[in-house]
Amino acid sequence: MLDCDLLIIGAGPAGLFATYYAGMRGLDVVLVDSLTHLGGQVAALYPEKQIYDVAGFPAVRGRDLISGLVDQALSARPRILLDEECATLEDEPDGVVVTTTAGTTIRCGAVLITGGIGRFTPRPLPAVDQYAGGGIHRIVGPAGDYADHDVVVVGGGDSAVDWANMLAGAARTVTVVHRRDRFTAHESSVAQMHGGATRVITGAEVSEVCGEGTVRHLVVRDAKSGETEMIPASVVIPALGHIASLGPLTTWGLPIKARQIEVGTDMSTGRPRVFAAGDITDYPGKVRLMVVGFGEAATAVNNIAVLLRPGEELFPGHSSEMPRSLATAGTGV
């Protein structure tokens, strides 16, 4: 049994910032995520991409942003549970009890859900999913790691085209295989891909992955003619998108509409002691930007602090105006 003031579900950007801010308010935090790493979908899906809508950064690489957020969050000394999904929620007179799929029980004063798009799993790609060898990269590393590789990106959305453009100048060869004739990615990105060194194969699908121990070649089949071609590949990047699901959260009696949790101006969900922030929330006028999620996280934490400690100020003041002892409370700074 773990006891804490606040359980934060979801270790993406909003959850990491909420953890840090909760430390500033002197709250003891347990942070849980179903992934095996911190950083949510930014770390899992686009760690090397530039992000352009975070205040203070004209451009910041996803990996670097997450690194900074993790450093902030860890300064609050949270207890972290990875590769565990919160399954059940039970009310108590002065708190709630949450149990994870791994059997961990957490008793807390309040819950803050910052789960982004929820649990996400890659869309199936049978030929790749059945291959047991190495060379399948579902998370893309730094471009320099691919200098001596023949890379095949499978997909036609923004992620697929962005990966192809990023690696075109770094990898030995880059090939994009897309089962449709048209791409759904941003037009300028598609134009960049067609204008560069990337080979683009449309109207085709990967029918077989070949190689002992690691990928050596792919067999690609034309959807119309049925003709096949073997192309060199030492790295395959499946980029067909992901299937999102809120999982057990749908059984918690929360107001959910179209995979979003409806919240009030204080980020409360309507269920006692349960709050939500970030992309997983919805309300009139909602704008789905990362910076908005940061603000929602702070709003939620401040309201939770007052709930748990009646008599405290909702707004504790600007961090630059706080005594150092308060601004760094619980952070180890």
Automatic annotation (TrEMBL):
Note accompanying the cofactor annotation: Binds 1 FAD per subunit.
Catalysed reactions, semicolon-separated: 2 reduced [2Fe-2S]-[ferredoxin] + NADP(+) + H(+) = 2 oxidized [2Fe-2S]-[ferredoxin] + NADPH; [thioredoxin]-dithiol + NADP(+) = [thioredoxin]-disulfide + NADPH + H(+)
Pfam families from the UniProt entry: Pyr_redox_2 (PF07992)
Domain FAD/NAD(P)-binding positions: 5-288
Gene3D superfamilies attached to this UniProt entry: FAD/NAD(P)-binding domain
InterPro entries (UniProt xref): FAD/NAD-bd_sf, FAD/NAD-binding_dom, Fd--NADP_Rdtase_type_2, Ferredoxin-NADP_redctase_2
Annotated binding of FAD, by residue: D33, Q41, Y46, F120, D279, S320
Alphabetically ordered keywords of this record: FAD, Flavoprotein, NADP, Oxidoreductase
EC code(s) of this entry: 1.18.1.2
SUPFAM superfamilies attached to this UniProt entry: FAD/NAD(P)-binding domain (SSF51905)
Cofactors named for this entry: FAD
Taxonomy, superkingdom: Bacteria
PANTHER family linked to this entry: THIOREDOXIN REDUCTASE 1-RELATED-RELATED
Family of this protein: Belongs to the ferredoxin--NADP reductase type 2 family.
Assembly, per entry: Homodimer.
Name of the protein this chain belongs to: Ferredoxin--NADP reductase
